[in-house]
Design goal:
By secondary structure, the chain is an all-alpha fold. It is built from 10 helices and no strands.
Length: 225
């Protein structure tokens, strides 16, 4: 008995209704194809939405704000006439993240194509965000390395570091932020990846909630009730 079939039988052991009610007709190939389709759909949607002007800046769910202490300090700084500088800083941070997104495509596509049977089973057995967790587990570290120089170049091109340091320096003068909060490139890179996986997760929710509505036969078969 193959690995996937054993896992599916275990899932059905309680005899309750589940998205795997047709488990015995679901092959390893079907499961892997379904997971690949879900991964591909989630990645494509995320990259399309985020890798464009205002993909981050115009979406309050992923918009990159100043880091905690500096965000709090910005309220005070606005009262000292620094509002325009702060707005420029936030815009530039989000533009850097938007410019980095297309660089994720190749790695995400490769991850989709190379999913193993074991990983497919783990995603099948996982919770509502198992697809997103799989992507993050497999791609966050290499994407961090890939994004960091892109974000660095974008911040340099837009004089973002200078803008950030100017705001941070004034905030430090009030004793409101720590020196380590000035690691701008790492901060923007991390938030860009947070936004990427969040948007993949949103697409995964849509697939799980309405697999029929995706118009994909394999997604309906694998994720449908």
């Amino acid at each position: 008995m193959n690995l996937l079939r054993r896992e599916l039988i275990a899932l059905l052991g309680a005899g309750c209704a589940s998205p795997w009610a047709m488990a015995f007709s679901l092959s390893e190939g079907d499961a892997a194809s379904g997971v690949r389709a879900a991964l591909e759909r989630g990645a494509q949607a995320a990259l399309t939405n985020l890798g464009r002007t205002d993909g981050f800046l115009g979406n309050p769910q992923v918009r990159i704000e100043l880091p905690g202490a500096l965000k709090d300090a910005a309220r005070l700084l606005r009262s000292t006439g620094q509002g325009r500088r702060i707005d420029e800083l936030v815009t530039s941070m989000n533009r850097a993240a938007e410019q980095a997104m297309p660089e994720a495509r190749q790695l995400l596509v490769s991850t989709v194509r190379n999913i193993s049977v074991e990983d497919a089973v783990r995603v099948v057995r996982g919770g509502d965000n198992a697809v997103t967790q799989f992507f993050e587990e497999k791609t966050r570290e290499p994407l961090t390395l890939k994004f960091l120089p892109i974000v660095t170049r974008a911040t340099e091109r837009q004089s973002l570091s200078e803008k950030y340091n100017a705001v941070a320096g004034k905030a430090m003068g009030f004793g409101l932020i720590r020196k380590e909060d000035a690691n701008l490139q790492s901060y923007v890179t991390g938030k860009a990846l947070d936004g990427l996986y969040f948007m993949i997760g949103q697409e995964e929710k849509k697939i799980r909630q309405d697999p029929v509505g995706t118009g994909s036969a394999i997604l309906k078969k694998v994720f449908g009730g």
